[in-house]
Amino acid sequence: MKKLLGFMSLLMVSSGIIFAQEVEFEEYKLDNGMHVILHQDNNVPVVTVAVSYHVGSKNENPEKTGFAHFFEHLLFEGTKNIERGEWFKLVSSNGGSNNATTNYDRTYYYENFPSNNLELGLWMESERLMHPIINQIGVDTQKEVVQEERRLRVDNQPYGRWQEQMFKNLFSKHPYRWTVIGSLEHLASASLEDFQNFNKKFYVPNNAVLVVAGDFEKGEAKRMIQDYFGPIPKGPDVVQPTYVEDPIQGPIKVQYEDPNIQIPLIMMGYRTPGQTERDAYVLDMISTYLSDGKSSKLYKKLVDEKKMALQVFAFNGSQEDYGAYIVGGLPVGETSLEDIMKEIDEEILKLQTELISENDYQKLQNKAENNFVNSNSSIAGIAGSLANYYLLYDDTNLINTQIDIYRSITREEIRDVAAKYLKTDQRVELEYLPEQKNAN
Known about the structure:
This protein has 440 residues and is an alpha+beta fold. The chain contains 17 helices and eleven strands.
């Protein structure tokens, strides 16, 4: 089994040069509203079956957070025809792998199989949608799993609560203000009926996109898709929530003490536009310019030359409705958080008032090109991109054309977008500090 899985991985990686070409796909809808995307590539004998649901933590009741992520776990518990505890065994015993992820805007499930198991993948995902078993034993089991995940990844992880502290200050109205993993108290107090109602509301075919990518024949795949997914009844229309945030009147200064760290951290957070906006692409390039790699401006200045920081970072966390641009660093020795912030602000000010060099601009273009190619370098990666571009961007063909947006961004735009969003009076300044011990 290990040899087979290793062989599949090797095939996916070694075939990357093929997938760097234009991605051909076909899309259509079933009568029940489920969107279907097919990408046929018979070069490698693997196939990915993926279903993405347009439900994330932003769709939750503020008093019942964590449900979207909880379902990522719960819907592996079993179905009418797949016994509890058998899902992962069924996948691995047939030479496959599988997983699921949740974010603020969507929940994504997938199986990777040798191509002769396409029908198995389709049947399993149709079972998850049509015949899930949501009972008390499954809910109780997954509550323990999620509790342990939160302890491991958030509560006991160094700097594990930065996002929680930052986002609740960046957003006052939008559900992005709470974390995807949500509240354990909310999950603990939720009833079985609460979980069943969440499933009925969001896990419907008209709120999902099915992607089949890899080695298959279209006619056969379409027949199987109709057989397995066609009979599933259409659900009530899912209306995505809309929220409009007021401008940040800042800077908003926040301190948080973490018992798991010894080195303080400074973070500045700016609210930015949703991921479909052109400015979001420009902000991606700005983060690359500032902190991607040892030749980036912040790393070179603060880590390499001045030796003021152990680490610096800048990234644009774009979501469907809004983004969060985060920049910051970990100081060395006696360097203060204020000193780090001052140096970062100097580099941002240069971006806002000067054009970056032609050489730096070309480096950004090269990195954008490389990232674009890498994102579509495997069958599984293509499946994820197709689902994401359809569900969250409403433009599946971005899998081929998104790079053109990056190519068209000018140095002038980089300057102007930095000036538009990275304002010192419209940000959250988070000092993330070691916990102070009371002296007795």
